[in-house]
Every structure is written in structure tokens, then in C-alpha cells.
Specification:
The protein is an alpha+beta fold. The protein is built from eleven helices and eleven strands. The strands form four sheets. It has a four-stranded mixed beta sheet with strand order 7-6-8-9, with helices on both faces.
């Protein structure tokens, strides 16, 4: 989105009030729980909105009513997720935090359908500009691709000083690709981002390692930020610079992952890979790999992108248990417990196999994927007989 200076000022004001409202709703919820030992519901806080709008008439006159409601719904969701994590003991409980103005970065329009006749807080004009509630004139938008399906929700997001339009759509049509008759097993790594079961690494898509190449630039921007006085204009400028460097790193990583995922989807009907628990790997203090290298690789993000593209293209993704895929000999299936991360060649003492470590893992991943497919077919046959 390319709003003008007047429109940016209104968007910033709306985001600031949403942050203010969220923090007050969170404060009230905490006080209510301490007093009555139960949480404040979304409907209870929504009942106070008419009074809030009257008290803050100037701040809320440019805000769509459902956008304000979404702020309170976000507060309720944060509390529900906290109590769920406490109950299930799944990771850190993570009590809801207060939001600074920098952390409140989105305005949500839950019923904006992006049609020329519908309103819902956002409307598409004839000149492809957007009419947004409370903002005078049409907002210029660069439509880098047409949206598909039925739009159910529109979000306006601020990131690194820029504004983006995000559409949540339902009934998005599939775009199945022609069958290739091929399948591939891949091992995710750091030296080579992927290695296939035929021994080919992704040489044409060399992993750029964006954090490793830009960490000095990011550290310099962060040092400048820490030296600025809180509340000053120079600190605001320094924050934007840090955000720009971080955005640049993320964009390089996403660009690489999208291109690689598209190549794999176009060339194969089935892709077999490990079902990695990246979160556990990052939390394991005794793990041999530096956590920053794991985060830079972003295996979880790549698998998600690959899965999304596969679903739309009608391709199959098979995930297997990653346990001992690197330590198991792909020929005799003996486990080599003494294998270290620094050992880049797998030498089997039982059968004499000498093979690249990553290719050995990819071969084991294919074997597990094929075994899983056979087991599924047998299960389906048994159901048919019943």
C-alpha cells in the first residue's frame, strides 16, 4: 500500500489507539482475575465499547467498529492460549504481555470482502484503489497478483515503516500440475540446504544464509539503537533502520525458499522429507549445531511453504520420523552411534559402505517413506474387507 502523508498519519493514530485499548483491556482482565479468580470475557468487555467510544470520541471516530472489537478478541485469545498452555504444560506458558506502539501493527476488518459493492470497512474502487473507513480519499495499492477465491477478512499491516494489505480467502481454486511420475526424498541440512536421494545437492539454489551474511550490519544497527535516548526522534529512526535490515534478511530467506519449493513441486509428484521438530532442536542446549544456524536455515518455514504449494498443485508430501536417519546405514540398516556432526562421510563398519552423510540420510528417508506408503495401502485394503 502507498498511502499519502495524511493517510499515514491517520493509520498511525489508529494503530496507537488499538495498542492503548489492548493494554487497558489486559490490565482490566488481570485486575478482574485477581479479584474474582475468573477471566473477563470478550462479550463483557465489548459491552463497555459504547462508553469507551464516547469517552475517546476523537480517537475512535476514524476506527471501524469491528476493528475495535477485534482488539478485544485478540486479548481474549491471548488469555485462552495462556491457560491452555498451562493446562497441557506444552512449552512455556507465556503470559500475555502489554503491547508497545511498535508491537501493535495491524488493523483487522473481519467482514471486508473486497468487492466493489460491499463495504465492511474496506471497499475496492473502480480505479483499483481502496476506500478504507475513516481515511479520506482512495489509498493507492500495488496489486502484485490478483487474489483468488472468496475474501473473508482484510488486514492492514505495518512493517518496517511500510503498509501491506493481507487478504484471507476461502474456496481458493486448486491449480493441479501434470503428473511427472517422479518422487524425491530430501535431507535438510546446513552445508547443503537440501540433498536428494540420488546424491544431488541443490547447487542451483545455493542457500544464501542471509543472517550469517548480514549479522554485522544488523548488529551495527542494533548498537546505534541502544545508544539513542528513549522517546527521542533519533531512536524512532534507529528502530526503523533495525526493522529494515531484519526485513531484508527475511525477504532473502523467503525468496530462496519459495523458488526452491516451486522447483521441487514442478518436478515431482511426491516429496518425502523428515518431520523435524525445530522448536525442540532450538530448545535443546546440548545440541551440536549453533541455534543461530538452525534459525537462519528456517527448515520449518520451508516445509510450510512446500506443503502449501503442494496442496494447491495436487502434489503429495510425506513426512517420516527423523530418528537416526543420519546414523543408520542405508544398505545394511546398522546404526552407527559414534557418528559425529563433523563426520561428513558415513563409513559403515558392518558392510563397508562409504557414502556422503547427507545422501545416506536421504536414502533412509526414502526407505521410510516407501514403507509408510505400503503400510497405508495395506490398512486401506483391510478397511475395504471389513
Amino acid at each position: 500500500m502507498y498511502p499519502n502523508s495524511q493517510q499515514i498519519e491517520i493509520l498511525e493514530k489508529n494503530l496507537n489507539f488499538c495498542s492503548f485499548l489492548y493494554n487497558n483491556a489486559l490490565e482490566e482482565s488481570i485486575s478482574y482475575y485477581k479479584r474474582f479468580n475468573k477471566t473477563r470475557s470478550y462479550s463483557q468487555q465489548c459491552a463497555q465499547l459504547p462508553e469507551i467510544k464516547e469517552l475517546y470520541a476523537e480517537e475512535t471516530k476514524g476506527l471501524y467498529s469491528q476493528t475495535i472489537q477485534q482488539v478485544l478478541k485478540k486479548r481474549e485469545t491471548a488469555f485462552k492460549n495462556f491457560f491452555r498452555r498451562v493446562k497441557t504444560k506444552s512449552g512455556k506458558a507465556g503470559f500475555p504481555r502489554y503491547q508497545s506502539r511498535d508491537r501493535s501493527n495491524s488493523l483487522i476488518f473481519p467482514q471486508a470482502q473486497m468487492t466493489k459493492g460491499h463495504w465492511g470497512g474496506v471497499k475496492l474502487l473502480e480505479n483499483k484503489k481502496l476506500q478504507i473507513f475513516g481515511i479520506p480519499g482512495g489509498v493507492k495499492v500495488k496489486w502484485h497478483r490478483p487474489f483468488q477465491g472468496r475474501c473473508k477478512q482484510v488486514s492492514i499491516k505495518r512493517q518496517a515503516g511500510k503498509f501491506y494489505l493481507i487478504l484471507s480467502c476461502d474456496a481458493v481454486p486448486l491449480a493441479p500440475l501434470a503428473s511427472t511420475g517422479k518422487s524425491i526424498a530430501i535431507d535438510l541440512g546446513l552445508t547443503n540446504f537440501i540433498t536428494t536421494d540420488d546424491g544431488k545437492a541443490s547447487l542451483s539454489f545455493h542457500h544464501p544464509k542471509p543472517y550469517k551474511t548480514s549479522k554485522e550490519k544488523l548488529a551495527y544497527a542494533q548498537r546505534k539503537l541502544s545508544a539513542k535516548q528513549k522517546g527521542s526522534n533519533n531512536r524512532i529512526k534507529a528502530k526503523k533502520q533495525v526493522a529494515k535490515v531484519s526485513e531484508h534478511i527475511a525477504n532473502i530467506r523467503k525468496d530462496f525458499q519459495h523458488k526452491l519449493a516451486l522447483k521441487l513441486i514442478r518436478e515431482n509428484d511426491e516429496i518425502i522429507l523428515e518431520d523435524l521438530n525445530v522448536k525442540s532442536m532450538l530448545e535443546a542446549g546440548s545440541f551440536e549445531i549453533n541455534n543461530l544456524n538452525i534459525s537462519d536455515a528456517s527448515w520449518g518455514g520451508f516445509v510450510q511453504i512446500l506443503s502449501d504449494k503442494a496442496e494447491k498443485a495436487g502434489r503429495k508430501i510425506t513426512k517420516v520420523n527423523p530418528r537416526n536417519t543420519s546414523k543408520t546405514c542405508s544398505r545394511c540398516l546398522k546404526i552407527k552411534e559414534s557418528l559425529k556432526l563433523s563426520d561428513r562421510v558415513f563409513d559403515c563398519q558392518s558392510c563397508g559402505l562409504s557414502i556422503d552423510r547427507d545422501r545416506n540420510a536421504a536414502l533412509n528417508i526414502r526407505r521410510l517413506g516407501m514403507s509408510l506408503a505400503i503400510a497405508q495401502k495395506q490398512f486401506q485394503k483391510s478397511l475395504a474387507l471389513c
